[in-house]
Specification:
Length: 191
């Protein structure tokens, strides 16, 4: 497996994307990723290691093949994918590539964070994952159609639950023993 210590954050941004553009900071899914960086900056023990910081930055005008190579390099050093899936998420080429390569080539487990929801009960009930969550999966068909190939953890946007998810060894490629859909900390009866 090599030295896989990073968390690969996957999120939708309009293309072409330039992180130095102030408009980027108003892009909702990018804001959630930046929140992880902020939590890490305020507390070095916050269990997020940014895979995006482990390779060269990609310029806004980079060709697709260059961008794809960088995405793969980042995923190659990652132990999991942290996917932000919200009502703002769109099925972009980069996001499709990240999820397809991450699941189908690297076998990376997915921690899905739903920024539109704050409580466990927003994600899952006694009968399973709620319809509003399942409907979000349609925004990213490559995720919807492949998530059962790896361990997939569904988490509301709540810092304490995000920390627990990031610290959970069952959701790292090195120690993943089960595949399927999970709701933190209890499993939904869907499999």
């Amino acid at each position: 497996m090599g030295n896989r210590t990073a968390n690969y954050a996957a999120f939708y941004v309009a293309e072409p994307f330039n992180a130095s553009n102030l408009g980027a900071y108003a892009t909702p899914d990018f804001i959630y990723y930046n929140q992880l960086l902020l939590w890490k900056g305020r507390d070095s023990s916050f269990p997020f290691v940014d895979a995006h910081a482990k390779t060269y930055n990609v310029r806004d005008d980079s060709e697709w093949e260059t961008l794809k190579k960088r995405l793969h390099e980042r995923l190659n050093v990652s132990k999991n994918i942290v996917l932000f899936l919200s009502s703002n998420t769109k099925n972009s080429r980069a996001l499709r590539e990240e999820i397809d390569y991450g699941i189908n080539i690297k076998g990376l487990p997915i921690i899905v964070i739903y920024p539109d929801f704050n409580e466990k009960t927003d994600i899952c009930s006694s009968t399973g994952i709620r319809k509003q969550i399942i409907d979000l999966w349609d925004r990213l068909p490559v995720f919807r159609d492949n998530m059962n190939k790896v361990a997939t953890l569904h988490v509301p946007y709540k810092k304490s639950l995000i920390i627990s998810a990031l610290e959970n060894a069952d959701f790292t490629v090195q120690t993943m023993t089960k595949v399927g859909r999970y709701y933190y900390p209890d499993r939904c009866n869907l499999i």
